[in-house]
């Protein structure tokens, strides 16, 4: 099983950016935890981060043909306004789980809405790095034959 983890804009700054909201782990440390858990769950985890919206969209497009079984995405600020990323996700026919380290619903008003939410299977937020780990578990479960989450 192949799981693609997508990290959006500014997420390469984890560990340096607002530790009260995002904790002290770096993106490399988060990716390492995801890959470790992926191995435990029998999945290969590939991680990709970009600060360029078009690159993220192109990576989503490649997921159509590269053997990706599910996607885990934290689009960062693009979550709240990128219809391009939303449309790219909507084209996928595999499970997509949206994750956020912080609770976007308890923050600034502009962060309360996710334009991705209507086209993903579910959203996990507010649990720090555990949001990613819970999301990975959900993605693996949904991508497994007979996965238990609705389409």
C-alpha-based Rg, rounded: 14 Å
* End-to-end distance: 18 Å
Helix/strand class:
alpha/beta
* Oligomer description: single chain
Major beta sheet summary:
5 strands, parallel
Average of pLDDT: 92
Low-pLDDT sequence parts = none
Q: How many separate helices? A: 5
Number of strands: 5
User: What's the SSE pattern?
Assistant: EHHEHEHEEH
The best one-word shape is globular
- Percent helix, as a range, is 25-40%
Strand portion: 15-25%
Description:
The chain is α/β, with parallel strands linked by helices and 151 residues long. The chain contains 5 helices and 5 strands; from the N terminus they run βααβαβαββα. The protein has a 5-stranded parallel sheet with strand order 2-1-3-4-5, with helices on one face. Helix 2 (27-41) packs parallel to helix 5 and helix 3 (53-62) packs parallel to helix 4. The protein is globular and about 40 Å long. The two termini are 18 Å apart.
